[in-house]
Write a structure and sequence with these properties.
The chain is of the alpha+beta class and 138 residues long. Helices cover 25% and strands 29% of the residues. It has three helices and six strands; from the N terminus they run H-E-E-H-E-E-E-E-H. A four-stranded antiparallel beta sheet has the order 2-1-3-4. The chain has a two-stranded antiparallel sheet with strand order 5-6. Strand 5 and strand 6 (121-127) form a beta hairpin. It starts with 15 loop residues before the first helix and ends with a helix.
């Protein structure tokens, strides 16, 4: 299953020139750029691990590309994404976020529905690997 999170998630994976173009756009707009990675892409996991600190007051795209390449070399089997944060409203607002690397084998998720009291229904998302490990996947 292909994980779809962030901008461009329904497009093919970006190549280096496309990544550079998006980072250049963020830098031209004065946005801070951050690089994050994770091996747990669950939709509720919003706390991906930062690669260094967010890069404020950038002038050179090459600095971001060097940091990104370092992260890709360090974590070849993890999800890696680039985020850009717009400070123009007085707070850091996510302006752009896209995945630049995926592991060779992406996990699958399963949506489970549970009947609650009355007419309520509850939904939960579980990793298929977790279900296989517990013997719950049919």
């Amino acid at each position: 299953m292909r994980l779809t999170q962030g901008t461009f998630s329904y497009l093919p994976d970006p190549n280096d020139d496309e990544i550079r173009a998006q980072i250049s756009y963020a830098v031209r707009n004065g946005w801070a750029v951050g690089i994050e990675s994770t091996d747990d892409p669950h939709p509720r996991n919003v706390y991906w691990e930062m690669w260094g600190l967010p890069m404020f007051d950038l002038a050179e795209v090459d600095d971001v590309m060097a940091a990104l390449n370092g992260c890709l070399r360090a974590f070849p089997n993890r999800y890696v994404r680039v985020g850009a944060f717009d400070p123009s409203l007085g707070r850091q607002t996510t302006a752009l976020s896209f995945i630049v690397q995926r592991p060779a084998r992406e996990p699958e998720f399963r949506l489970e529905r549970q009947e609650a009291g009355g007419r309520r229904q509850r939904f939960s998302v579980r990793l298929a690997w977790e279900l296989v490990r517990n013997g719950d996947l049919r």
